[in-house]
């Protein structure tokens, strides 16, 4: 239902920290019509060229300062992901994505206070890494 919110266009890029490429990141908007605490993010899945990124290699941030693994997000009740504000998702992978085109899939699943089933959104994009 909210697939159009998932995986913002032109947001996928390699992450460089202290001169080294430590992974890649992408951004998504929430798959709901209002903000939620990070603890209500049920799951995030990333796939690159058909290969799944393991859950342990995914970290997220609402402010670009504080980063949480998916397990840590389960108890992050004081950090709120607001509607219209992107969540930054990083996949930790030494060397990041190689140059060229990649098919990247992102799935975001959230729980909400008033809907008894999780809401999921999925988007696949072809991205070019320069």
Report on the architecture of this protein.
The chain has one domain: Immunoglobulin-like (Sandwich), CATH 2.60.40. By secondary structure, the chain is mainly beta. The mean pLDDT is 94. It is built from 1 helix and 11 strands. It starts with 12 loop residues before the first strand and ends with a strand. It has a 5-stranded antiparallel beta sheet.
How would the blueprint of this fold be written?
Layout: E1 13-17, E2 20-28, E3 36-37, E4 41-48, E5 51-52, E6 58-61, E7 68-69, H1 70-73, E8 80-81, E9 87-92, E10 100-110, E11 119-129
Antiparallel strand pairs: 1-2, 2-9, 3-8, 4-5, 4-10, 6-7, 6-9, 10-11
Do you know the CATH architecture? Sandwich
Number of helices: 1
C-alpha termini separation: 32 Å
- The parts where pLDDT drops under 50 for at least 5 residues are none
Question: What is the rounded Rg?
Answer: 14 Å
Mean pLDDT: 94
Oligomer: single chain
The CATH first-level class comes to Mainly Beta
Major sheet description: 5 strands, antiparallel
| Secondary-structure content class | mainly beta
Helical percentage = under 10%
Number of strands: 11
Descriptive labels:
130 residues; mainly beta; 5-stranded antiparallel beta sheet; Immunoglobulin-like; 1 helix; 4-stranded antiparallel beta sheet
What is the structure about, briefly put?
By secondary structure, the chain is mainly beta. It has one helix spanning 70-73; strands at residues 13-17, 20-28, 36-37, 41-48, 51-52, 58-61, 68-69, 80-81, 87-92, 100-110, 119-129. It has one domain: Immunoglobulin-like.
């Amino acid at each position: 239902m909210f697939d159009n919110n998932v995986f913002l266009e032109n947001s996928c890029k390699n992450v460089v920290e202290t001169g080294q490429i430590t992974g890649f990141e992408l951004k998504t908007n929430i798959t709901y019509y209002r903000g939620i605490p990070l603890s209500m993010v049920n799951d995030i899945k990333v796939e690159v060229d058909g290969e799944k990124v393991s859950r342990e290699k995914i970290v997220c941030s609402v402010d670009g300062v504080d980063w949480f693994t998916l397990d840590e997000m389960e108890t992050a009740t004081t950090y709120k992901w607001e509607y219209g504000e992107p969540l930054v998702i990083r996949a930790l992978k030494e060397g990041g994505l190689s140059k060229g085109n990649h098919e990247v899939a992102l799935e975001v699943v959230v729980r909400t206070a008033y809907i008894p089933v999780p809401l999921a959104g999925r988007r696949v994009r072809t991205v070019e890494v320069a």
